[in-house]
Amino acid sequence: MDNENFQRVVLEKLDGLKEGQVRLEGDVVSLKEGQVRLEDRLNELEAKNATRHLQIEAKLNVLIEDRKSIFEILGRHETEIATLKRKLG
Q1: Domains contained in the chain, number
Q2: Which of 56, 78, 85, 87 could form a disulfide bond with 74, CB atoms 3.0-4.6 angstroms apart?
Q3: What does each C-alpha distance from 88 to 13, 18, 35, 83, 85 come to in angstroms?
Q4: Is pTM, for the whole model, over 0.70?
Q5: CA 10 to each of CA 1, 3, 17, 58, 89: distance values in angstroms, whole numbers, following the listed order
Q6: 3-state DSSP call for residue 68?
Q7: Dist CA 75 CA 9 (whole Å)
Q8: What is the DSSP string of 22-46?
């Protein structure tokens, strides 16, 4: 193989490497963009989850307060007897 052929082969290989590098750089950019979108979606889901948690907690607090009021009205023993009757069917 003479010097010209050797240089041509090396340049062809170098061009192939450059093309591969450009493809890889494009893939990295796409992955980074996908990661940002995924992080945005996860943040959105976390915010929704926190909102739902607060709503459930508020409803539970209302139920707890209502239960306390029922105990005060009926008396603890009457309430427990009614609960047992309901469980026994």
Answers
A1: 1
A2: 78
A3: 83, 79, 55, 9, 5
A4: no
A5: 12, 10, 10, 71, 88
A6: helix
A7: 95
A8: HHHHHHHHHHHHHHHHHHHHHHHHH
One-letter amino acid for residue 30 of the chain: S
Query: What type of residue is 40?
Result: D
CB 71, CB 79: distance < 8 Å: yes
Q: Which two tokens stand for residue 8?
A: 């041509």
Domain membership of residue 30 as a residue range: 3-88
Q: What pLDDT, in 10s, does the model give residues 38-75?
A: 898 999 999 999 999 999 999 999 999 999 998 888 88
pLDDT tens for 10-20 read: 989 998 999 99
Question: Rounded CA gap, 79 and 7, in Å?
Answer: 95
Q: What is the dihedral of CA 10, 15, 21, 22, to 10 degrees?
A: 170
